[in-house]
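User: I need a structural model of Sec-independent protein translocase protein TatA from Prauserella sediminis for a docking pre-check later this week. Nothing fancy, just the predicted structure tokens so I can convert them on my end. Input:
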Amino acid sequence: MVSFEQLRSADPASFDNLANKWSRLAGELSSTDSDLASAARPLEGWSGDAGDTARAHISDVRDGYSTAAEYIEKIPPALRTLSDAVSEAQKTVNSVAETVDSNGHLRLQTDGTVRAIPGGPGDMRSDEEKQAASDLAEELTGKISRALKAAREADRTAVSALDKATPESAGLELEATGDGNIVTPADIPRDASAAEVKQWWDELSPTEQESAIYTHGDVIGGLDGIPAEDRDRANRIRFTEEYTQLNERRDELENLDPSGYSPEARELEEIDQTLRGLDAIHERLEREPTATRPEAYLLDFSTEGNGRGIVATGNPDTADNVVTSVPGTGSNLSKIGGELDKADALLDQAAQTERGSSNAAITWVGYDAPQDLGAATKADFAEDAAGDLQSFQDGLRATHEGQPSNNTLIGHSYGSTVVGHAAQGDKELDVDNAVFIGSPGVGADHVSELNLADGADVYAGTAENDVIRNTPPFIHDNQPINEDFGAEVFDAGEGTDSWYGTSTDAHSEYWDENSTPLRNLGRIVVGESPS
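Assistant: Understood. Predicted structure tokens for Sec-independent protein translocase protein TatA:
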């Protein structure tokens, strides 16, 4: 998906130059085809097997040149159309930028939104003037949003047109691409560290990267150390295919109107649950970005078993602050919509806490979570997830551009147990802040048992009425809100009570709008201390 910064830095002339080069290449291939035809005419009188073989070979070579020219001729129009669309979108963006520059009370953000700058103590503007600035900011943001939408649509159209002109479409993949530009499964460093994967990726040519994305997207999309934009592209291709297939299968089953106990009815129920999660992801990926809720990136997903999904709202490779949230018991693909809403709440609060900051919130349903309280008493799920969560955090560091971001890892409920186990052992968990909220215990008795990056802060908070407080210490060890654990305990509010005191409602209210725990989480995300 085309970002605002990509649109601003794009050079439409480069598309035109490429179009001209492709046009020349198509002409040269056609000329070569004609030259071969001329050179082969003297062979027409050559009889026998050798003559037949020679003519057949020349005919095959000519067909290759002719076919290549035919498909290459489809490329220049697509590139020129894209150039025109990008130019128009840039005109709109430049016009908005000029308006912002001429207005001392507006600011153009890196995500393409325009914000009204709140006045300080010396601001003599009336309330009407301040409102006018806010209205103008909203109007200008809309203009950029529409320009971005047009550019993205043009980009998708160009991609579609170029996909129909690939060597594979022409049946000439090896001839046009060349063996040296194809990435094979053996080339992919699946067991390497995130830093090693990033180095491998950077050493590939653009053609090799495209080869990897389109032929091994199921691996590239989930490989820590691959940049977020490239993982997103690889995963969207696979996501679109699975999403379409499941919707088609659901329609088939619904037309059968299966009885409640038939295999078809059970299959339909399973598909409905899976699509509930995929629908939420699809909605997030297609949502128009706003000032506090930037575009989304699909960093991994799976429909097998309980399903998994890793979605970043905002680009973690360019954000100043990156927060990863790990949910707890009962989390799975079908319920990811609620977790994505929590990411929105975090982003909104972070933006209110530090205006102008660039933030990304990652929903990490990247493990097989326990699905009931009985299973949640076991540490197996957390132990199995620890390595994947560690690697994911390493990947965020490896692919980040510019100065290191402030990385926060929030574990809620059993998710805190996952974070706790990821922070134990010989390998360091590379985060700036580890946050345990509504935690039953993290598999450790003291913060000294956690292997975190130097200078990392450990925070803990549990609502007064959260039923999780009743978890006995022999299940997941010392609760991190206890004084002897050594974490910095912050105010997580009281939460809804019940006739017997604690409640399950209080366990899920940490992201409620304007709540004390949400305000404190927002402070931590942007690098401030909670109350």
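Before docking, keep this in mind: The CA atoms of residues 458 and 487 lie 5 Å apart.
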